[in-house]
Every structure is written in C-alpha cells, then in structure tokens.
Specification:
Order of helices and strands: EHEHHEHEHE
Strand order of the largest sheet: 1-2-3-4-5
Largest sheet: 5 strands, parallel
Oligomer: single chain
Number of strands: 5
Helix content: 40-55%
Strand content: 15-25%
Structural class: alpha/beta
Shape: elongated
Distance between the termini: 31 Å
C-alpha cells in the first residue's frame, strides 16, 4: 500500500529557504514547492549546485516552482519581468528535475469580459508553453 506524501508550500515570510528546507526535513515532509522569491534570495548566498546537492542528499524533494504572477493584461514592464522569471525558473527546474511551474492570473479587479480573459489566458499560456517546451516543463494554471 502506498502512503500519502506530505508536501510543503513555503509561506513563512520570516524564514529563509535554508531554514524551511531544514524544518521540512526535521518534521518529515516529502516534498517542497520552491517559491521564486525564496530562490532568488537563496541564490544571493548559495549556488544552484548547492541546492542540487542538498536535494541529492535529502529525502526531501523539490515538487514544483511557484510562481509567475500577474500574467493577464500586463504592461510591457511586467511582461518582460515575467519572461525573465520564467527563464530563471526553467533553468532552476531543469537542473533540479522539477517539471511544474505555477502560473497565476492577475489579482487585480478587472473590467474585462470572460471572453477577453479566456483569450488572454490562451495567448499567454501558449507563449509560455512554447518557451518551457525545450526544458520539458509543464505549466500549472
């Protein structure tokens, strides 16, 4: 009989990724979702090789990458930032063997119709899917 695996979605704003990895190992989590903000902070002190080495030596495994946000009806500055972040997550995911990147639609109030939202979603997700294909990544929307 297989057992349910326990995953962790990092939400501790006051904790670093290193601290969260340590706590997840200590309390028996099987997997962790890696948040982009925590990864960027982690890489100010560590390397991708360090993170890869951690997971190679740990029972804790990376589950997914979270997230590219505010993707719908974004201005050009946000679109550029999202494209850079997507490339960053693809590189990290490829090295760590993670296949899933979470994509979050915009949180702002909108006057757009459901049809406009649907079309924008299709357009953005198609663009992102084409970018992540070479990394064998998947998008979770």
């Amino acid at each position: 009989m297989s057992r349910v695996k326990l995953g962790y979605n990092p939400t501790l704003k006051q904790a670093t990724l290193e601290q969260e990895l340590e706590l997840c190992e200590k309390y028996g989590f099987d997997a962790i979702e890696l948040r982009i903000e925590k990864l960027k902070d982690y890489f100010t002190r560590n390397t991708l090789a360090d993170l890869k080495s951690f997971f190679e030596q740990s029972t804790l495994q990376p589950l997914s990458l979270n997230a590219i946000e505010y993707v719908l009806f974004s201005d050009s500055v946000r679109k550029e930032a999202n494209n850079r972040d997507l490339a960053f997550l693809c590189e990290v995911g490829y090295e760590l063997g993670i296949r899933d990147i979470v994509i979050v639609p915009s949180f702002h109030k909108t006057e757009y119709s459901m049809e406009a939202i649907k079309q924008e979603s299709i357009q953005i997700l198609t663009q992102y899917a084409n970018k992540v294909k070479k990394y064998n990544m998947r998008l979770a929307y």
